[in-house]
Amino acid sequence: MTNALQISVVICTYNRSVYIKDAMESLYNQTLPRNAYEVIIVNNNSTDNTQQVCETYIASHGDADFYYFNELKQGASFARNTGAAHAHSPLLCFMDDDAIADKDYLERIVRFFEEHPDAGGLGGRIIPRYIPREPKWMSHYVSSLVGYFHYSPGVSIFSANKYPLESNMIIRKTDFDAINGFNPALPGVVGTLRIGGEGKDFFFRLKELGHTIYYDPAIRVQHVVEVPKLTREYM
Questions:
Q1: What is the mean predicted confidence (pLDDT) over 94-118?
Q2: pLDDT tens column, 11-54
Q3: What is the pLDDT of residue 192?
């Protein structure tokens, strides 16, 4: 870690040992110099071998700033806040544990905030990565239910009641601290229970600071969608 640090990526993970390595690999192979970013993995009580996968990967990639932590309080809000507390850069980027970032993902984010000093937050495009393949019945009307997110064809400002998805969002660290991060009363997924709305609550509080929240479709991640799980009950 050096004074050149520009952005911290926080990945909160729960039982994604099959995919977490791909997420880390996509962040390791970025066009942004490795001394300009850090990756913070927060394990939220996984019962699979997530810890072993993460620690093995970090040990074998010592030329990058990857860090591993545990958060015992169950819920994405707790885990994200823990990751942010360990961050040392002016920008906080949140990405999912089953996502793959474009190679220029972090470089584009850093450049965006340099070119848009009024930006208080930023969201990007999320493209489903169907496993094993996209179902024939998938359509534009259904894809949003499985994580597809594309707000506009070009750089734009989110309207008053719209906001980025937490799986591809960026905020200045000072603003994250100013609104005390994510609300623990809205923890997200807790076992089979979902107490959601944490992203909406987060960005509405951020907007109260008077900041502009942008969308840039060129800041992209792919997000795993396991097709066998897309049952009628799930949808």
A1: 97
A2: 999 999 999 999 999 999 999 999 999 999 999 999 999 999 99
A3: 57
1: in domain: no
Please report, for the domain that includes residue 47, its CATH number.
Answer: 3.90.550.10
Handedness of CA 136, 140, 146, 148 (dihedral sign): positive
pTM of the model: 0.92
Specify the pLDDT at position 2.
44
Q: Name the pLDDT band for 140 (thresholds 50, 70, 90).
A: confident
Of the candidates 86, 53, 105, which has an alpha carbon nearest to the alpha carbon of residue 221?
105
CA 24 to chain centroid, in Å, comes to 12
Give how many domains the chain has, as a whole number: 1
Q: So what's the pLDDT on residue 195?
A: 64
Query: What domain range includes position 133?
Result: 7-229
Whether residue 2 is contained in a domain is answered as no
> Which 3-state string (H, E, C) describes the chain?
CCCCCCEEEEEEECCCCCCHHHHHHHHHCCCCCHHHEEEEEEECCCCCCHHHHHHHHHHCCCCCCEEEEECCCCCHHHHHHHHHHCCCCCEEEEEECCEEECCCHHHHHHHHHHHCCCEEEEEEEEEEEEECCCCCCCCHHHHHHHCCECCCCCCEECCCCCCCCCCEEEEEHHHHHHCCCCCCCCCEEECCEEECCHHHHHHHHHHCCCCEEEEEEEEEEEEEEEHHHCCCCCC
Evaluate whether residue 128 is within a structural domain.
yes
